[in-house]
Design brief:
Blueprint (H helix, E strand, L loop, with lengths): L5 E7 L2 E9 L38 E6 L2 E5 L1 H7 L6 E9 L8 E9 L4 H14 L1 E9 L2 E10 L2 E7 L24 H13 L12 H14 L19 H15 L21
Parallel strand pairs: 1-5
Antiparallel strand pairs: 1-2, 2-6, 3-4, 5-7, 6-9, 7-8, 8-9
Length: about 280
């Protein structure tokens, strides 16, 4: 059973709704340890100084590099004094339309559940936000860090996602490679072909059909090796040849998409209603 990682209250106006917080994701990563190839023992990491001597943990402090081998050292007490006040509230500052939020700002998803005695107030907020089509923008302190969050109704409950602050998102125009080249223009025919390719690959979003294929291959490899199977490393597949002509590439892609596409499901027609037999007289 999932365990709550935080408890507090959603606050807006004079309304407070006690809630508990749960992570909405369970990362599926394959974790490895570092192993000594000769002894088979796990490699341990130690904190050592320039002379190679191990340094006790309690002797280590934080330092910010301001130049080559120049650091400003900060004590734990100095950092503690700067930490945001550990409140137990999610303070809503604004309600905005969902489409106004660029997905690039989203960071980590959570679920908010009603705490004891807050079920009705919680459901009222869910229904009101759902009817209004609004998302709440709020601030909350999680793990000693103030976070900007977006709260929205999802499947009848409240989902909360931590967000990046505006100055944490790198503008696209800072990359020379992404700067628009005014000399590059597309023709009407190229645009039509590109839209046709997009249309041929369009379908409904079904998240269940996408899998982490690399992780599945790694787990399969681990299982086979654990059973004593000898692994033969296969030659990598050759890279597909580059098509120099854009139109030829579009035409080939459309032809390939048509060959692989499945016919779209057509809605089933309802059977005609059976006529009632005339009443006997």
């Amino acid at each position: 059973m999932a365990r709550a990682i935080w408890s507090g209250a959603i606050s807006f106006g004079l309304v407070n709704i006690p809630v508990t917080l749960y992570s909405a994701v369970s990362r599926k990563t394959v974790r490895f340890h570092q192993i000594d190839a000769e002894s088979g023992a796990r490699v341990r990491q130690k904190r050592v100084g320039p002379d190679g001597e191990e340094i006790p943990y309690e002797q280590i402090i934080k330092g910010y590099e301001i130049g080559p081998d120049r650091y400003v050292t900060i004590s734990p007490e100095e950092l503690d004094a700067l930490e945001p006040q550990k409140t137990r509230t999610i303070d809503i500052e604004d309600f905005v339309d969902l489409e106004e939020i660029d997905p690039i700002y989203y960071d980590h998803p959570y679920y908010l559940a009603p705490d004891t005695g807050a079920a009705k107030a919680y459901q009222l907020l869910v229904d009101a936000m759902d009817d209004a089509g609004k998302v709440a923008i709020a601030r909350v302190v999680l793990r000693s860090k103030e976070s900007l969050v977006a709260i929205r109704p999802r499947d009848g409950v409240l989902a909360m996602e931590t967000m990046l602050f505006a100055d944490e998102v790198v503008p696209s125009d800072t990359f020379d490679e992404l700067s628009a080249d005014g000399d590059v223009k597309t023709s009407d025919r190229e645009l039509t072909m590109a839209k046709q390719l997009i249309d041929s690959l369009s379908s409904d979003f079904e998240p269940e059909k996408y899998h982490d294929e690399y992780r599945e291959r790694v787990l399969d490899l681990i299982e086979r090796k654990a059973q004593g199977e000898t692994i033969v490393i296969e030659e990598p597949t050759s890279e597909p040849e580059k098509v120099p002509d854009l139109m030829a590439a579009l035409e080939a892609s459309i032809a390939g998409a048509k060959g692989q596409s499945k016919p779209k499901a057509t809605p089933k027609k309802r059977a005609p209603a059976k006529k009632k037999a005339p009443a006997k007289t």
